[in-house]
Amino acid sequence: MRNINHRRGPEQMHGHPAWGEEMGRQRRHHRPFDGEDPRMRGGRGRGRGHGGPRGRGGMGRAGRGDVRVAVLLLLKEDSMYGYQLMQTITDRTNGAWRPSAGAIYPKLQQLEDEGLVQTTAEGGRKLVTLTDAGREFVEQNAESWGDPFAFAGSGPDLRGPLHDLHGAARQVQMSGTAEQLAAAEKVLTDARRALYLILAGDEQDAGTGDTTTES
Fold first, then answer.
1. What's the pTM value of the predicted model, to 2 decimals?
2. What is the pLDDT of residue 61?
3. 147 within 8 A of 156, measured Cβ to Cβ
């Protein structure tokens, strides 16, 4: 018996050939990601209906990593292609949020179905623009949405300095004297304590590096 459960292509998955083709191209250049803040998995919170002309009115306050809100706010600034939306979101969050084609293009199709955006074909790509209804919807709700780009993890990338610190510690471990190893251990212990103080909101004590305890 023939297996009829063929794998569906992007155009069948998302109901629109052009979106499917563009999503297929972009997927090859972006690592998989569900397009939303990983901390939001398992629940979207309250007050986040679809909204728009065919939805239930306002969407409520948006969480960090809300694809729908991010797309609408960016399109209010200017018309963009799908890949531009992905890149702009990545830039706005300093790389903390990298939405994939699989997150962006289905959302664009949904917004188009709701009449909030319209698309114009240009050289095989689709330029996305807010409709008048979409612009009005954003203006009415943007203030209540909050900032979908405000990731707690956005800001300077600590992986570079951490890598450098690890390399320096390895050098001391390999060639340092007993006294140097003891001094390096204290430096690392102080650094770990200072980082936790930063998270606790005590930056002043963290900057002193004072690890003395009261008797």
1. 0.49
2. 46
3. no
